[in-house]
Amino acid sequence: MEKSPKEVQTKRKNKIKIVHYIYRRGHASKVDIANDLGLSMPTVLQNIKELSDAGVVEEVGNYQSTGGRKAKALSIVANICYAVGVDITANHLGFVMIDAKGTILSNTRQRMRYEDTFSYYQEISERIQTFIDDTLEDPKEREKIAGIGVSIPGIIDKANHILLKSHALNVSNISLLKMSQFLPYKVVFDNDANCAAYTEISDPNKNVIYLSLNNTVGGAISYNGKLYEGDHLKSGEFGHIIIVPNGERCYCGKKGCVDCYCSALRLSSHTGGNLEKYFIELKNGNHDFEKIWNDYLYMLALTVSNLRMAFDCDIIIGGYVGGYLKDYLIDLSKLVMQMNKFDFDTSYLRCSKYHMEASAYGIAMWLIQKFYDTIG
Length: 376
Ligand SMILES: [Zn+2]
What we know:
five-stranded mixed beta sheet
């Protein structure tokens, strides 16, 4: 009997759900899929057969068993597609290529000062193409690239491909098509904090606040596994919440913003812009640096406490400083506990799992997941 359009849609949704589930877990058994997604075993078996026939999933071995038949482990086929992430900052370009399982195949960081000129956009396109050609030497494999995701520190109107405003790059109202027009791939753009947040929000059942501590402070709000962008694309601008009335002047024009006290520059400005050097000095017991760090941590605790009060969900700290915060998370937690009497612990607070090229990696992950949404 022919299936109704609703049945066809449900079947397709189940198939996509299964692919996302296997991708998130790395590998999964049919029993796991049926139990965790609430699907019947015949439905799982039928979908796995179709996905295997289409070359999307494969058996990669057996799970350990204490008796009876061993369960087969299913995984995504790594070369079903690829995605490229590009991170543009004021002085650098970061490139990452991942496969369909989210494994990084290649990454590099290059010095290149941003300027809004034709030659810059041409040069960046050439460098992206060279990076792709060096990573995937077989032209047939290059045809499987699902897209190129570009991370930019600024407010982006994705629908109209316009960079509305970037303090970090010191530009406004730039057409992003200037960059994508030279590339023979699908190109998407997103804000750098949003891109980094994609590394942390693959679980559709989780709400997450992502606080990005780079040379500017940004953030993202993930609600039910999707980013909340706000009515005017300005959500998650945690860097411009005022925490010190009439405090230091922020580049945005206000006074006392989080950015003034919690950007990575607050620390690295004491070591000529080298954040790693700052943390080495701190570890070596430099008293001046300890004082700076204590002040920094207090302001960060204030920010975290405010975010927790506003959103009541997990808070993940990423960005350059987030990469060094693991050893100081207990100190931060103590301060947050002193300020926030509404929680019994700070188990909601953690550092981002990804430090290097998080924005480029995140937007590439997003492209891979979008590719899975097209499987039917
Ligand atoms: Zn500000």
